[in-house]
Amino acid sequence: MASERRLSWVAAARDTCVVFLIAGASYAALKPPFIEYLFRPFEGFAAVLPSTAWAACKVWTFWTVAAVIVGGLLLRSDPDLGLLDATIGGFLGVWIVSWVGANLLGPIGLFRSTTIWALFLAGGIWLWRSPPRVVLRPLSAGQKLGALTFVLIAPVLLIEQLGSPVPPFMDVLATPAGAQRILTFGLYLPFDNEPYGYFGPSCQLPGLEVFYAFLGLGSHTQLALLAETAAILPMAGLLILTTYRFGRAIAGDVAGGMATLFLFATILFRTLPYVHGRTVSFVLVGAGLAFFFDERRSATRLMLSALMLGTAVGTHAIIGSLGMMVVAATVFLWLLSGELSAAVAGVGLLVGAALIAFPEVAVGVRLVLPYPALPLLQLVGIVLVVLSARRLHGRTVRDGAKWLRWALAVFVIVALLWHPPWVMTNNHHRRFPLLVFGGGLGFVLMLWTEGAASLQRRRRVVNARPVWVLSGPVVLAMVLGIAIEAASRRLAGISDNPEIRFTIGDLLWKVDYWYPYVLLFPTGFLAAEVYRRISPRVAVFLVLAVLMFPWRDRVDPDLPPQATADPNYSQHSMMEGWIYHLLTGKGGYWGSTADHRWAQSSAELALMDVLRNEVAAGRITTATRLVHLEAEYVYLYKDNLLFSVYTGIHDDPYVDVGTLDWDRSSRLRPIEQVHTRLAERPPYVAIRGNPPIAPEELRGYTEIFNRDGVRLLREESVTASTS
Predict the structure, then answer these.
(1) How many Å apart are CA 616 and CA 116, to the nearest integer?
(2) If pLDDT is split at 50, 70 and 90, which confidence band does 465 have?
(3) Secondary structure of the chain: what % helix, strand, coil (to 5)?
(4) 653, 667 contact by CB (below 8 A)
(5) Helix (H, G, I), strand (E, B) or coil at 460
(6) Residue 526 CB neighbour total at 10 angstroms
(7) Contact, 233 vs 157, CB < 8 A?
(8) Cα dihedral sign, 652-654-658-664
(9) In Å, how far are 200, 369, 402, 413, 497 from 366, measured between CA atoms?
(10) Contacts made by residues 24-33, CB under 8 angstroms, sequence distance 24+
(11) In a 3-state reduction of DSSP, which class is residue 629?
(12) Among 248, 304, 390, 515, which residue has the least CB neighbours within 10 Å?
């Protein structure tokens, strides 16, 4: 026994040395800018650490405790669920509870800390009185690979998280502003929860706004920004876990683990610290698809799948809808196969998930419905999901329509390996070469393995190696992406309406996120075959070398500028990704503002305290709209007064938009239009700089704040009415 332990330690030390050699060679191959980035000093990190670290401790503790309660209740109701799926169901169940609970309780003022803790306390007591049986098993090979992925990304993400009290990206602040509005006023009004003002209702992410507010309420974190950025590292862990789970469901344990490593070849780790719906929605989509396609078709997994996909649509309409369309296409194949009863139950699941997602649709298209229409529709959806899942429980559905699925697979393989100009038109084979070509070869192997397994079953081959490969979900996902991209490009010029053009352009951009995620799984299967047929160590070291070494500019020196200069746009090496995370963590993101981390000057932060006092005094309510004037051209990432993000108060911004073709459904307006608005005597006016307005236009206002060019004026009638 002692000699075996000694040998395992020797093997571990040897493997670690090989990884360090790969990392050293990758570091030596870096270009000069990255070396300079790596050795930049920490600036202002210690100043924000007390705020970010304390928020992380509170949010992590609350989310974990709540997840243990939800997961324990799931495991108690279905012991066959297993610890892994109960863990996923627990953490994402908290998200689902926030989505349904906010629509049910938010409009009547009961979406509060006391309600949340009372709910979980009741669940905890119930669980304590009758705990489930928990079976601990050793980590599988795929789970160890997933753990390796987390170990490789967690340290740099933690540094970026602790150095980022504000999400580090230019266009993601509407979400924390919506969450802050709930925290500030104690209400969630679905059709009046966009205080930021820079985007229209179609860009809202209500499922994410209420979740971050839920984390803030449950953890007693008063600033939604801190509750949101505290979720960065847990979201990374969940992205890895659900990616593994989906990969395992369709291609086996090792393929699922390898798929998590190839997350480094996407832009998802790069964009995850923005904690925006376009990235974190993949956590819900991955889990929802994993549970739907699991060969152990149980009612609990199917119910969770529909709930997760419905919440994913609420979190990000495009990504969530793509996940639901994969399920819809599969149900259609069931119908073609003659599985009428299963197809009807599948339609029931989809309709139920759509009803759970419906509040996002109503908000996005401005279909204002009176309370309690939205929560009633969600409750009907939950009932339909439960009934449909029970009909599919334990049922074997014949995998028919193979001719169609295999024809689609051949089409996808041609698109990936030969990339004709009329398909996947956004230069994907050069922006994501590892996933495009690896995914194409992986699809070939998946079809080959799936066909061989099917032949063995038909011939009843004795002692055949058990194989579970289901290429259908990823084939359908790729075809859907290709079809949406083609349709969007065709529709891009049909309207002169800027809002429609904005929406279609956004659709194309989100498909850019979809392709790399889907290609994780055939690429992971390709690596898993090397793992199985050649050597586990060779496979892992080879994957790490390909991911870590900055080889792209050497094999493709004519790369377009966006493929190398913008890591938000294309594949980059693991080593480069680490440095990008460290760069933001060390120096902050908001370089064009007075404070690179808080994105606000000390005067602007002091203004937030004044506004909070106005709320406490009852002078500012959910109906109040602050007219906001900026003297210079300001849009998103430039220096801007962000009181809506810090207080949740409605911002009606009037700025120098120049020639910007902005979203006309938003409240952003050219500053030339403010004169008419001031004549209407708005209750408050916030001014930054010296915008072009005459002093007489502000006659009758009392200046209640003036510091470093930032002013807040209150209309005299507001003071009189609250005296």
Answers:
(1) 23
(2) very low
(3) 70, 5, 30
(4) yes
(5) coil
(6) 26
(7) yes
(8) positive
(9) 10, 9, 42, 41, 17
(10) 25/549, 26/548, 26/549, 26/550, 26/573, 26/574, 26/575, 27/575, 29/549, 29/550, 29/551, 30/550, 30/575, 30/576, 30/579, 31/550, 31/553
(11) strand
(12) 390
Residue 65 · residue 120 · CB < 8 Å = yes
Residues 719-723: contacts with CB under 8 Å, at least 24 apart: 719/619, 722/617, 722/618, 722/619
Sequence-separated (6 or more) residues with CB below 8 Å from residue 227: 55, 59, 179, 212, 213, 215, 216, 219, 221
Higher confidence at residue 247 or residue 452? 247
* Spatial separation of the C-alpha atoms in residues 380 and 352, rounded to whole Å: 7
Residue 157 pairs with which residues in a beta bridge?
none
Share of the chain above pLDDT 70, in %: 90
- 434 Cβ contact list (under 8 Å, min separation 6): 262, 265, 523, 546, 547, 571
What is this structure's pTM?
0.95
- Give the three-class secondary structure for 328: helix
Q: Is the peptide bond before 165 cis (omega within 30 degrees of 0)?
A: no
Burial class of residue 579 (count of CB atoms within 10 Å of its CB; 0-12, 13-18, 19+) = buried
Separation between Cα atoms, residue 258 and residue 520, nearest integer Å: 8
The predicted structure's pLDDT at residue 127: 93
Say if CB 354 and CB 310 are below 8 A apart: yes
Q: What is the predicted pLDDT for the residue at 343?
A: 92
Tokens in use for 138? 């050793």
Identify the CA nearest to 98 among candidates 344, 315, 316.
315
Q: At what angle do helices 433-459 and 472-491 cross, to 10 degrees?
A: 140
Question: Could you read off the pLDDT of 128-172 as tens digits, one per residue?
Answer: 998 998 888 899 999 999 999 999 999 999 999 999 999 999 889
Joined together, the tokens standing for residue 263 give 């997350």
pLDDT tens digits for range 330-342: 999 888 888 889 9
Least-confidence region, from 72-86, 369-383, 685-699:
685-699
**Secondary structure (3-state) at 537:** helix
Contact 307, 268 (CB under 8 A): no
DSSP 695: G
Beta-carbon contacts of 564 under 8 Å, excluding residues fewer than 6 positions away, are: 552, 553, 570
Contact 69, 614 (CB under 8 A): no
Cα gap 27→115, rounded to integer Å: 51
C-alpha dist (Å) from residue 299 to 81, 205, 392 = 10, 29, 7
Pair of tokens at residue 28 = 């030596």
Q: What is the pLDDT of residue 584?
A: 95
- β-partners of residue 670 are 655
* Range 319-340 burial, b when 16+ CB lie within 10 A, else e: bbbbbbbbbbbbbbbbbebebe
pLDDT tens for each residue of 28-56:
999 888 888 888 899 999 999 999 999 99
Beta bridge partners of 706: 711
Between strands 710-715 and 701-707, the pairing is antiparallel
Radius of gyration of the chain (CA): 26
The owner of tokens 């990969």 is 247
